[in-house]
UniProtKB/TrEMBL annotation:
Gene of this entry: yqjZ
Matches recorded under PROSITE patterns: ABM (PS51725)
Protein's recorded name: ABM domain-containing protein
InterPro entries in the cross-refs: ABM_dom (IPR007138), Dimeric_a/b-barrel (IPR011008), Jasmonate_Hydroxylase-like (IPR052936)
Record domain ABM: where: 13-99
Domain of life: Bacteria
Protein species of origin: Streptomyces termitum
Amino acid sequence: MTQKLVAGLEPPYYTAVFTSLRPDAPEGYAETLADLRERVAAVPGFLGYESARTPGGIGITVAYFRDLEALDAWRLDAAHTAAKEHGREHWYEAYSVHIGKVERSYGFARG
């Protein structure tokens, strides 16, 4: 899957940074991820996400939300909650979540 950078967001907005350690391609992960991507895209106030994973299993996903209400709607989504529980039991060795308010944002793109 080709992913583009999220750009052009007008602050303030919020980020949820999910950093994880997990083995490559655990059973059921890809299907759950595809479902969750569809679900989060439907949350009013969801602005996009960026994600990367190292060959050693460290992954970082940054999701962008217009406001805390949108972020809370995602946090409380039933399928998301079930995936978090399943992930703790079966997929992840460890993870952390950091929530932040973006006050300033800028970028660069060649061409």
